[in-house]
Structures are given as structure tokens and as C-alpha cells.
Amino acid sequence: xxxxxVRDTFFLAxxxxxxxxxxxxxxxxxxxxxxxxxDRCVGMDANMIGVRKTILVAxxxxxxxxxxxxKIVSKSSQIYETEEGCLSLNGQRKVKRYKSVTVEFLDKNxxxxxxxxxxxxxxxxxxxxxxxxxxxx
Length: 137
What we know:
Layout lengths: L8 H4 L11 H13 L6 E3 L9 E6 L2 E13 L3 E7 L6 E7 L1 E7 L5 E7 H14 L5
Antiparallel strand pairs: 1-2, 2-3, 3-6, 4-5, 6-7
């Protein structure tokens, strides 16, 4: 089900709880909501639809990748500055991001995965993972 995007910064500043297999509806709601906003969004996390769980969906290539309980396990030494926007906020803000990150996560079937992301894909994932700690750009 397509959910309304949360814009309450107090809610967004709260930390997320680990996801579990009972959160399958949250995953579906995230997919539905990001697809409904595909013209202006490439990444979304559960906080943005009002659920404090560590689940994100990111457009990687031409498909949506679901990540439950993602953790960045390594980062490149290369850092760059860019500007990002967020559906939960107005405007853009300057941020620093790692050029590449390796992430361990659970897929939509809660199987362990490990993958390295570079450039814009790494930026999307870092942005969404920040939300889990209450970090808003």
C-alpha cells in the first residue's frame, strides 16, 4: 500500500529498531511507495513511511534492492562533497559521502548478503542508512 511520506523531523530523528521476518508488509509498503514516487525518489527507508525499522529500498541499476538491517562494513578512503534532497525535507543540503561502501544486509527473504556499491548507488545507500540513526541531511 502506498503510504504518506513522513515530514516530522522529530519522528525522523529517532533511531530505528532491527527488522525481522514479521516486517514483510513494511517491505511491500516501501516498494509501493517508492514506485509511486519514482519520478522524484531513488531511495526510501521505513522511517519515511512512519515505521521505525531498519529497512530500505534503493533503485540499483534498473531494479529495486531491498535491504533489511544493513550495516556498512567497509568504506573507501575517498570522500566527496555533494548535495542531496530527501522527500521528507524541503530543498537540498551539502553532505560528504564515501565513494564506495560494502554493506552486509538481509534480502527480502531475510537471507544474508554482502555487496559493494560505488558512486551514486553508494550515496543512496549511505543516505538511507543515516536515517536509521536519526541523521537527517
